[in-house]
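Hi Prof. W.,

I finally got the Cupin type-2 domain-containing protein prediction working! I wasn't sure whether to trim anything, so I left the full sequence exactly as given:
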Amino acid sequence: VTRYNPTIWKYSDLRDLVLKSAELVKPEEAGRRVVVLMNDSEAGRKHTASVGWLFSGLQVMKPGEITPAHRHMASAQRFIMEGDGAYTVVDGHEIELEKNDYVLTPNGCWHDHGVFKNGRVSIWQDGLDIPLMNSLETNFYEVYPKEVQEKDYPTNDSPNTFGTTGMLPADSMSWSKPYSPLMVYRWEDTKNGLYNLSKASEGSLYDDYILRYSNPTTGGWAMKTMGAHMQMLKPKRHTKAHRHTGNVMYNCAGGEGYSVIGGKRFDWVEHDIFCVPSWVWHEHVNLSNSEEAFLYSFNDFPVMQSLSIYKEEALDDNNGFQIVVD
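And this is what came out:
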């Protein structure tokens, strides 16, 4: 039985707090300026966890700001929610960021972030495996000897090299690191992929149309301890309920709807964030009659699968739908 509760964080409640943090704390005064998303449970408060092995928070950057470079044992990923002109540098690779991009910061990689002076205030969701690293007592942390890294490669070299669908550079086998060489997954490519998938299949009973962010050199997860998906719910779509081992954090990337999690209804609109704890029934509904809804999510499935403890089950009762309780 999970120790964590289904929890929703409404962006309308969070956004002003996130912007206020930008006025209260300067980048050089803290390793990162993050509003932490704490699970509404004793376990969440004890382990500083959003759900299970997953930590999440909202980070904000103003134009001209740069965070100090550092690295740590925890793996990290970012989902860009709003703004313009943001970028990250990961082990010397500078990557420009746009809304709804999915970005990797693998464990052990030096990284810093910033917003160009001609950009706009930018907010993104961080996702890390800090609770897992803390439990394993391996969450080492190191500060870069300089404030920022040197840029060792042409800007956007990672997506320009590895971002062509179905194709790899002829020398791609020389990539031997345990994470994806594609460090940013562009929203336009992801959205087009979902639309194309919807032309070829009827979708999943439980997720409608869903794509996994994968390592293009292996086809597996992009990182070893966390995975991520983007899914599209067709207008008026109501998925059936299922449950699985492994915890999931969701972020509404567009549209409006609700999810039934453990028999309770959680309504969401764009940028709202919610979680599904391990082995809890859940189903999703798109409330629009004409527009698709998009849900970004990240999870700890790679850990469950590596340990051979991933399990999934469909709900048979009530034609596959939960009974909603107040």
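Helices lie at 11-24, 42-47, 130-135, 157-162, 187-200, 301-306. Does that look reasonable to you?

Thanks,
D.
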